[in-house]
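Figure caption, in words: inputs first, then the predicted bound structure.
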Amino acid sequence: MKVGDLVKISNDTCDGGHGCGCWFCYNSSNGLGMVLKCLKSDGGHVRGTGGYWSIMFDVGEWRLYGSEIEVISMGRRHDDTR
Ligand SMILES: [Zn+2]
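Bound structure (zinc ion present):
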């Protein structure tokens, strides 16, 4: 996972059912967002589900651990030529 990736909250984070009181349901978010930045990598190496991330959702910025979200579309990298 990296900055620019399109992500959605995992089913463990929000079950979307009745009585789910999570931030996303409270704000009527569709749970889709884009990774803004990595706040903390996991042991110096960002694994697929590791780290702590700042993500811009349709209803605003929220911070989540990598295990709470899943990547649905890899963002394009513009700096791969280094
Ligand atoms: Zn929810």
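The longest strand covers residues 32-40.
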